Amino acid sequence: MGIENLVRMVTELSEILAEHSQPDWSEIFRVKANELGTALTDSEAIRIYKGILESLRGGAGGVNDLVLYQDGRLLKKQTNRIHELLEHIREAAYRGLAELEDS
């Protein structure tokens, strides 16, 4: 899975977050998608991969907590797609980071 695929997934996540009244998280991921899509050096890409992974960390106040629940209720619409995107984005970011750090 290349950078283009990761950019596409992060952009889709950003759009879903905007639809679910999460403008701050939507903006964070929109910016990260744009940055990754225009990264010119490996060091830039590494910084962005690490930023994506930091944004996906668990715990109170993290994107998982804020996105999957709204007013204490599990989001029904798009929940499966959100879970899927979060998992695939995390995997792709770890893989891309490892490839760049190994080179």
Task: Looking at this protein, list some descriptive labels.
103 residues, mainly alpha, two-stranded antiparallel sheet, 5 helices, 2 strands, 75% helix, 4% strand
Count the helices. How many? Answer: 5
Order of helices and strands: HHHHEEH
Average pLDDT rating: 83
Structural class: mainly alpha
Largest sheet: 2 strands, antiparallel
Radius of gyration equals: 13 Å
Give the termini distance in whole angstroms. Answer: 17 Å
| SS elements, strand count | 2
* Coarse shape: globular
How many independent structural domains? 1
Helix content: over 70%
Low-pLDDT segments: none
Strand arrangement across the biggest beta sheet: 1-2
Proportion in β-strands: under 5%
Task: Compile the SSE list and pairings.
Elements: H1 3-19, H2 23-38, H3 42-55, H4 63-68, E1 69-70, E2 73-74, H5 79-102
Antiparallel strand pairs: 1-2
Helix pairs in contact: 1-2, 1-5, 2-3, 3-5
What report would you give on this structure?
This protein is mainly α. The chain has one domain (3-102). It has helices at residues 3-19, 23-38, 42-55, 63-68, 79-102; strands at residues 69-70, 73-74. The chain has a two-stranded antiparallel ribbon with strand order 1-2. Strand 1 (69-70) and strand 2 (73-74) form a beta hairpin. The two termini are 17 Å apart.
Short description:
This protein is mostly helical and 103 residues long. The protein has helices spanning 3-19, 23-38, 42-55, 63-68, 79-102, and strands at 69-70, 73-74. It has one domain.
